[in-house]
Amino acid sequence: MPPMEDKDIQISDKDIIIAVPSILVAVGILSLPAKIAQETISSDGWIPLLISGIVMIFLTWLVVKTVSSFPNQSFFTISSSLVTKPIAIILTLLFVIQGILTAAFEVREIADISQIYLLNDTPMEVLSLVFLLVVIYAVSGERAGIFRLNTLFLPFIIIISLFVIILSIGWIEKANILPIFKTSIGGYAEGIKSSIIYYGNIGFLLFYLGFAKQPKKAPKMAAIGMSFTVLLYTLLFIACVGVMGNGAVSNIIYPTLDLSKELEIPGGFFERFESVFFTIWVMAIFTTTVIAIDITVLALQSVFKKLRKLNIILFIAPTVYFISLLPKDYVEVSTLSNIVTVFALVLLFVVTLLFTILLKIKGVK
Amino acid sequence: MSRTSFFNRRKLKTNKPEQQNQTKTTIELGKNLAENLKNIKTILGEPSDLIVRETTLGGTDKKCAIVYISGLVDQDLVNNNILKVIQSNMNEIDPNQIDVVFQEKIAITDIKKDNKFDESIDSLLSGSTIFFLDETDTVLILGTAGGEKRSIEEPQSEALIRGPREGFVESVQTNVALIRRDIKNSNLRFNYHDVGNKSKRTIVVSYIDGIVNPTIVQEVNRRVKSIDLDLVAESGFVEQWIEDSFLSPFPQMINTERPDRVASSLLQGKVGILVDGTPFALIAPTTYSETLKSLEDYYERWIVGSLIRILRYIGTFLALLLPAIYIALVSYHQGMIPTQLAFSIAAAREGVPFPSFVEAMLMIITMEILQEAGARLPKNLGQTVGIVGGLVIGDSAVSAGIVSPIMVIVVALTAISSFTNPSYSVGIGFRMLRLFFMVAAAIFGLYGIILAYIMLNIHVANLKSFGIPYSAPFAPAFVKDWKDSVIRAPITMLEKRPTYLKPEERQEKSKNEEKS
Amino acid sequence: MLSSKRWLLIFLITPIFLAGCWGKIEIENRGFVIGTAIDLEGKQGNEKYNLLMTNQLINPAAISKQSSGGGGGGNQKGFINIQDKSDSLFAASRKMRHLTNLIPYYQHLKVILVSEEVIKEPGLFSDVMDVFVRNHELRRGVKVFVTEGEANKILDFVPQIEKTPAMFIEKLTTNSKNAGILEPKRVDRLQNIFIYERSYFIPRVKLVNNEIVYDDAVIVSGENNQMIGTLNSEETKGLLYILGGTKGGSIETKFDDNLVNVETQSAKVKTKLTNKDKENFTFSLNINFEGTIEEHFGTKDLLKEKSITEIEKDLEKDIKQLVERTIKKVQREYKADVIGLGDVIREKHYDLWKNIVYNWDRGENYFSKSTVEVNVKANISSTGAANRIKQKGKRGE
């Protein structure tokens, strides 16, 4: 590979593994334990979390395999050849909507949470604006740079999560973990329903597969990345419930942050660990938002070939900002979150079904 | 994006040849000796250090002359190996045959025939002696460059406790020789470029053929050729002309005074750029992790080397973020400070009239002034300034109640940490970034710091040095290179060349193994 | 392209100038609240209480100055107490802003003291705690104590070594795990307790002869968060052995009519449900005690197997007595399960638990009807560095 060419980027296997948690891990996990704890008894929530995770790992593997059987082609060209051009345009535009909504949601949440945990008196509008500007700065760089950013930030996210998980081991109480397997089938179903939507954004990955250096390996890599994410979610959930108890977790808005609030760092170098945790977590939210906007740009460019990247960004950014300001309170933000995640999941299911079936019918070329 | 436009602008500049040749004479070499000599004198403005020795070819009445500029030549060489030979008996030789004189008589190895006037003047100015023979339009350019030179000394800017004591000097020939001495390999290549509109400077691009990635060499050569400056006074000009991004606070090439550093970089598959007239050589491409390496990491045992490297990363972290974190914690997140410490900071700050940001700015700027003042002064005075500034000002500022004692600790720790960076130019970059982080912390606290940190990472992720991502080997991840990044694995494990440079030949030790 | 990048740069920089420094409050302007006391001032009609909130603010200058040198602020008190009344704590704390030039700051809050009067009102305690769990400013590890008498009186107590009473109590109880005293309740644990409506105990602090005493606890019913009684210091000790995991407390016994003092190294507890009959649950509570002899007044040879066994026997008897007394009290008198027997059923026999949960320590109160068989196994692991310091008959040699 000559190092001088950076026009057409290429994504290595490692990049795909890293991209998956970068896409998925964001604000969702901060409130996820509460949503699942509400549906399950004591620590049983890990079961629906794991089941939905495995379902999504399989789904990801399937859709990535389908898409990567068209090596080095963009999502738009693949879908055009599979489901005719008009439907391809609709699908791509749906992803554009998903990208904008996801970005708006993340921007809104980061402002809300940092207002709660870091800066109580700074207006939410300013916090989100500053964050969005940094995101724009990243998106306006080259696409390979975004993958490099993912690689740079993921270790921080892993280390801080592991830190929280390991520290909480000492705080876990038996009474919070036991009894196990006592949730009813209905409870599990509800749990799966509320946990599976946290994986919906993985559909973004489909757009990057066209750049994959080794498309054959891509399904495996995506599955590895997914397994990592599922594992992280499950461990964080167990830590939350084990330390704080199901009753408290299901009634806290951001249990993962409160988990880090519980922990005291040995040595007492920093107090209020949740501020440190959230500060680092900004990186995770950042990568998700960057990818969401980048996908929007990519999707729009694949449909409207003449548009310049910067112009698209200048159009998208105010839209994202505007949408992020729409919800008036936390309840409305939750509604937005539900809309975004369900939308993403349904879109992913539709694309997977369409592509897999049509590929079977038409056969691989 | 910006880089291509930057190059476009540069290309425009190089497309103006009429400017370059303005000073070049149109005078041709004549057959008449006296006329040639007169021409030389008028072109150079009859300087007093231009020595014209007219004589006759030994034993014959054939007129000839040697011309040189005193001070630029090795006087002994001219007297013994040129003048003596010319004046000695030359009866049996046909005096018209300049070739014979050229080939058989003059006892100098670097000898060249020429018939262009401007070229001979160029070489005259770089220390050659010119031999004129009457009734011939060809001259001999004799390489007699010499004169006063600094001897090889220990490098001032990069002192090592353990390691070779020799450093580069101002003469590029000596420097090339120093590298050759370190790498005795037939594949070692030196590409010479003469650069500069008003004054020529030799720039040597060195690499090892078969190891280096050829595209990098091509790119370096292309960029060096594009230099359009009147005078390349120092390698800094070269660096700034050929770097990828001039907006970046990070240097995209390493400068070094140490031949061993250049040699080891060449063996890794990098390119060295030597500039005549300066002891500072450039190494390209470089990455961020590369700037935090010192040769001593390799000379010491690996545990020591690794620990020192980790220490340097911590030092960089402190130098960059400590004042910002202090501001964020004291102005916004007092809850994060351990309770007892929070109380003592609160007590110490009672009576300090400024907010922590102003307080920190005051001290940081004072520190920068002290550093700058110390650097420009003679060594002995510099130390005095350091003591007076650091101790006296710091202490009295505290007792006058302008700053809190904890702020002094923070600033002092920051300043010391920034010196752990082995590269001075990287250190300066971090000093600028520190201010940026402080402003971010003053406005948004920790949120500002993390966003500033993300911005810094975005910049680094988009930055390239000669096509190599600046964030390599961390991102893109070259896992095999990690054993020589934050830690320095045992030397026996470092047998492979860094893969991020995509060298042609991976195995560093293969040649040695073949020999043994 | 370059110009558009420049535009972006300007875009990025401008908000910095737009932004002021919202909410920037320098550390010296913060009034660090490290202790809060809540007292009941009286009822206003029905269901409306008048609460007195006392905040202890530290005086950083007095706290961090070394006492050496004598002059200057040596005699300054390390704290200031401010108080205000209102029907809710949040309102009271907001009113308090007018009382000091400093802005009250709760992130370093260490202890919450609640007077018995508050807990005796049904449901008031959990209402009072709401603000401390809800507010993000607070740590979740804030310790909650009950006080005998007025809570704000304790905040007036000037301790000898520490500069502030709140810090004193905080430090007094930090090492509770190694001192054989009850571990304080953290405010975040209370949330889970309230939600599951469990009965619980809260350690109590009281002022006795101008000393802070921390050795007993109050029992609170899970049904309405109302205090139903206290455990005295002996009963509290028994509670420690039931809960297990205690370390460092000492227990006295007699050996050959001489006093032997044994320090607890560990006490592991295993509880099993042996009879699942609703009307007569039977639990077997096995305590595995391990200790070291720290003090012995007699002259007998302690290194003999026989003497050790004898001491162990005595210990087992003593501990059993202690534990049974506590169990009897909570079972028969208070009828509130603060010793975690319900958890045993819940963890191991969840289906059974679901049937009886509303009649466990309320309603039918199966808890009070159940039997607890206590088995103690004591083990002396060390007799210290010396066998004895007095020996009979040695002089004759």
From TrEMBL, chain A:
Its main location: membrane. InterPro entries: Spore_GerAB (IPR004761). The chain crosses the membrane at residues 16-34, 46-64, 85-104, 124-140, 152-172, 223-245, 276-298, 310-327, 339-359. It is a multi-pass membrane protein. Keywords: Germination, Membrane, Transmembrane, Transmembrane helix, Transport. Pfam families: Spore_permease. It is found in: Membrane. One of its GO terms (cellular component) is membrane. Gene3D superfamilies: Amino acid/polyamine transporter I. It comes from the Bacteria. Coiled coil: none annotated. The keyword Secreted does not apply. GO terms for biological process: spore germination. Belongs to the amino acid-polyamine-organocation (APC) superfamily. Spore germination protein (SGP) (TC 2.A.3.9) family. NCBIfam families: 2A0309. This is Spore gernimation protein. It comes from Oceanobacillus chungangensis.
Automatic annotation (TrEMBL), chain B:
InterPro entries: Spore_Ger, UPF0353/GerABKA_families. One of its GO terms (biological process) is spore germination. Residues 1-22 are annotated as: Disordered. It is found in: Cell membrane; Membrane. Keywords: Membrane, Transmembrane, Transmembrane helix. Its main location: membrane. It is a multi-pass membrane protein. The chain crosses the membrane at residues 310-332, 391-415, 435-456. It comes from the Bacteria. One of its GO terms (cellular component) is plasma membrane. Pfam families: GerA. Belongs to the GerABKA family. This is Spore germination protein. It comes from Oceanobacillus chungangensis.
UniProtKB/TrEMBL annotation, chain C:
It comes from Oceanobacillus chungangensis. It comes from the Bacteria. It holds the Pfam family Spore_GerAC_N. It is a lipid-anchor. It is found in: Membrane. Residues 24-206 form the Spore germination protein N-terminal domain. The lineage of its organism: Bacteria, Bacillati, Bacillota, Bacilli, Bacillales. InterPro entries: GerAC_N, Spore_GerAC-like, Spore_GerAC-like_C, Spore_GerAC_C_sf. This is Ger(X)C family spore germination protein. Belongs to the GerABKC lipoprotein family. Keywords: Germination, Lipoprotein, Membrane, Palmitate, Signal. Residues 224-384 form the Spore germination GerAC-like C-terminal domain.
